[in-house]
Structure formats: C-alpha cells, structure tokens
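Quick bug: Glucose-1-phosphate adenylyltransferase subunit GlgD output formatted oddly.
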Amino acid sequence: MRENKALGILFSNMHDSILGELTELRTTGSVPYGGRYRLIDFALSSMVNSDIMDIGIITKSNYQSLMDHVGAGRAYDLARKRGGLRILPPFASTNASGIYRGRLEALTNATEFIRRNDAKYVVLGDCDLIANIDLRQVINQHIHTGAYATLVYKKEEVFPEDIRDTIVLGIEEQTDNIIDIRHHPDVKGEQNVFLNLAVFEKNVLEKIISDGKSHGHYSMMRSVLQPGIGKLNLKGYEFTGYSHKISSMKSYFAANMELLDLEVRTALFPKNKPIYTKVRDQVPVKYGLNAQVSNSLIADGCVIHGKVENCVVFRGAKVGRGATIKNCIVMQNTIIGDNAYLEYVITDKDVLISDSRTLVGYETYPTYITKGSRV
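Here's what came back:
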C-alpha cells in the first residue's frame, strides 16, 4: 500500500437547491457544462489525475442521469476489478425518507465503503466546482503539517447573490492555520472562499462519522470544524489556478461564457491533466451556406444554418435558417426554428423553439427554458 494512498468521496446532490430548475430532474453533478461535460467530470478527473483510483459518489435523489453519464467509470479509467468507481445511493435509517441533511449524515451511508478501503487518507469533495486541481499537493501538505483536516480555498471576490452558498475561511498567513469559519457571511470583496474540498486521515474521519452518528449531528462544518477552531490543527491550502464555483444560475451562466476565453480554456484543460467525460461518437458540425459563427463553442453533431455569436452549443443542437442566437447556452438536441431570435437564454436538453420566436434575458438574469419544453 502506498503511504499516501487516498480514497475519494464526492457528494453529488449537496447544492441542488441553489440551481433551481437546472437540478429539478438531475443532481448538481450531472448538470451539463461547456458543450460536452457534466460538472462531476472535473472532480472525478482531478482525482484520477492525482492517482486516486477508489472513488465513491454519494447520491440522494434524481441520480438517474448521473448514473447514465458516469456508468461503471470506464471514461475515467475507473472500471477496475479492484477499487474503481462506486455509486452510494441514499441510506435507510429511522427517518423513513432516508434523506440526509448534511455531509456528516451523508457519510454514514459510506461507512462500510470507507472502512473496507486500505487508503490512509480520504479526500471529500462536492460537484459544484469547475477546476483542475492537483490533489497530490494538497495531500502532501496535509501529511507534512500533520493536520487534523486540510481545507482547500481560493482568494476570490464574493458577490451578494453567491453568499447563500459560500463559506469563508479566516487564514493565518504565516502558518496556514484556519482561525475562523463563517457560513453565508455578510461580506464583500476578496475573501478566502472554501472550495468544498477537504482532506482527512481515514481513521480520523471514521471517528468523526461515528461520533456524529451517536450525537445526532449532521453537519461536518457546524458540528466538527467550527467548534474545533483553536483546538484542532486545521490547515488551509490555497489554490491559485483557475476555478469557478457554481453558486447560482448567474454564476453557472458566467462559467460557461468564460470558456470562450482562450486563457481560461488553456488553464482548465492542460494537455498533461485532461478532463475526462463520456465519449459520444458523432459526426462533425454541419454549417449551412448562410451560417455565421463567431466566438462560440459548438459541439459535434450540430447543424448550424443561422447566426451564432458568443454561445456555447451542446451536441446535436440545430439552429434554423435566419435564426440568431447571442450569448446563449444551448443544450443537447435543442432545435431552434427558422428566424428565431434568442439572447441571454439557457435552453435545457430537448427544447424546441418554434419559428420566429423571440426570447431575451439579461446577463445577470438569463432566461431559462426547462428540459423538453416547447416554445
């Protein structure tokens, strides 16, 4: 066994409520992104690229699309005889619904999965983060400092609409000690924002889960880490690369639009650390004689006859003759009719926009069309 072998645990549903209709029929982890990816691809790829080959995904509800996407883990090199990928569905408890309220309660569902693994460390992560992180560096710092827990954070600006899903850390600059943890703080400007990524020793985490279960605790942050400030050796690890935390519909729209920047794509998709996803073999994009495309990402299988400007277009979408779409996210198999006009619109999968329809949102409040809708 490697001395620094780690087990990965991902929470796929932890941020469903903040994305509203986007997660009405799917988990946060299976939210589409960037023309061909799902949000969970970034967490899984970061773990695989960091030699974490045992990964459990804790689910709660609406996880059919997640299972369809990740399958047995073949796309991530996780379809293995030993270890690999495992889906951990909701647990049965005295609560008839079996629905957990927080990460600590959710981890009781993974107790046996954790206990049977021979890893020495456990990496806990959510699926709301778009980033490509070398977790080996985080684990090595955790080992070197002998920390009780190491929490990954990034210095970034906090906006009012994101406060609902934000945790801010107080960090002692010289020692990286965590001296404060604040939930949903009334703050502005640059802050140390927790990226919902943490490292524990396995035996420490097992004790936390056991104690939490016996005391009826359900929140890792409120019941363990916040009370441990000044008592436990809590360390912060600053991530300085590109990241975008999905904490609202506005931030989801912005994250997709940022992909149109070459510098962002270069930082997020380096050749030595690829982002893996489910592969679909489709034909290249077909452009009509009058098609006009500028500053857009268009996936395989699309048919473009109209004008596309500053858009992210997913696989199999069709843009009709005379149609214009600007600053839009067009998901898989959406059909946009002839002479339609869309600006600042997010269409979910299998949407039909009829001929000559006009839909206009705003950059800070894009119009969202639910999956399978007819407009």
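Actually, after a second look the formatting is fine. Residues 200 and 264 are 30 Å apart (CA to CA). Closing.
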